[in-house]
Amino acid sequence: MSLKSPDTRTDIPKPAPSASVILVSSTNEVLLLQRTKASSSFPSAHVFPGGNLALQDGDCPPAGDPKRHEDSISYRRAALRELFEESGVLLARDTSSGEMLTIDEKRREEGRKAIHNQSITFLEWLARENNGRATEPDTENLIPFTRWITPAGVPNRYTTQMYIYFLPIPDDHGQGLDADVSIHPCHDGGIEITDARFLESCAWLRKAQAGQVKLLPPQYFLLSLASQFLDTWSRSRQSLVALRRQRRRLLQFVNAGSPPWTQICISPTIDRTLSDGRALVRLDSPGPELEGSGRSGVKDVVMLARFDTEGPRDIEIIPKEGRTKESKL
């Protein structure tokens, strides 16, 4: 079946390739960053670390090629480079020994600024800091977890590959990578980020529902999915066994379904506005770029959200069979 590509249509902006990381701590909390009020993309929103692909990340298929919207090494490198630039969390390995690279805070801060200013590439900086030895971002441990394509009616569009990365859980002796200096997140001095912290998925969702933080639909949706597995035990009852069990269940979920969540592609589509002012958002379309490709979104739930100049709020995810008569398609 041929792919109906919108790239022959001049009225639809081409989505820029980008990547984001759902970084899960050693205690199964999730990292979110708050963007600055002056940010050109999603001002003041709490987002997963991530950003656009750059030339240094490697080749990306051209617009119009369906492979542009598939997981690849360039998306993975971009995800971990942006994670480092925005939060200071460094996830890279010596390719010969397989050992994780550890760098003190002062050198990491210098590296973040240099890479952001394009004074040096991420890979060049890694090699330099590792005494010239070949070093790569730890791309193998990134787990694809949906792709999101901005709807056609929005001027600034992105095709964003989402990943999960699990920081190691300490062993019974308390040893683990999460104790290393390379793992503690911090903002970038206000260049793009004003806050960086880990919280339980359910805590982030409660803050969004209370209007204390602004979550975009992809963040709200994916945190809701993760919360079903990572927040199943109270903090007082957690153990290393419980933490590992939570992760196994989430991984089983991510790889389950037809298609699995690793392959799902979502382009949110506003269907209508309800009487309470909220929009009913469908999640079943993969977007115009992937019409006829066989890719699909989520068919069994819809999202409700109120959109205004401050961004989305009052978000709710409901099953299709749970919709009111007013919201039926």
What does this structure look like?
This protein is of the alpha+beta class and 329 residues long. 22% of the residues lie in helices and 23% in strands. The protein is built from 6 helices and 14 strands. The chain has helices at 73-87, 105-116, 122-129, 201-209, 217-230, 240-254; strands at 16-24, 30-35, 46-47, 50-52, 92-94, 135-137, 143-149, 158-166, 193-199, 265-266, 269-273, 279-282, 301-308, 311-319. Strands 4-1-8-7-10 form a 5-stranded mixed beta sheet, with helices on one face. A hairpin with a 2-residue loop joins strand 13 (301-308) and strand 14 (311-319). Helix 4 crosses helix 5 (217-230) and helix 5 (217-230) crosses helix 6 (240-254). It holds the Pfam family NUDIX.
Topology:
Blueprint: E1 16-24, E2 30-35, E3 46-47, E4 50-52, H1 73-87, E5 92-94, H2 105-116, H3 122-129, E6 135-137, E7 143-149, E8 158-166, E9 193-199, H4 201-209, H5 217-230, H6 240-254, E10 265-266, E11 269-273, E12 279-282, E13 301-308, E14 311-319
Parallel strand pairs: 1-8, 7-10
Antiparallel strand pairs: 1-4, 2-3, 2-9, 5-6, 7-8, 11-12, 12-13, 13-14
InterPro entries: NUDIX_hydrolase-like_dom_sf, NUDIX_hydrolase_dom, NUDT19
Organism: Penicillium concentricum
Domain Nudix hydrolase: 13-231
Write a brief structural summary:
This protein is α+β, with helices and mostly antiparallel strands and 329 residues long. 22% of the residues lie in helices and 23% in strands.
- Number of DSSP helical runs: 6
What string, H for helix and E for strand, traces the elements in order?
EEEEHEHHEEEEHHHEEEEE
Q: What's the total number of strands?
A: 14
Main-sheet strand order equals 4-1-8-7-10
Shape field? globular
From the helix content, strand content and strand pairing, which structural class follows?
alpha+beta
Fraction of residues in β-strands: 15-25%
Alpha carbon gap, first and last residue: 27 Å
Helix content bin: 10-25%
Mean model confidence by pLDDT: 88
Q: Please state the CA-atom Rg, rounded to the nearest Å.
A: 20 Å
Query: Largest sheet at a glance?
Result: 5 strands, mixed
Give unreliable regions as ranges: 1-8, 177-181, 323-329
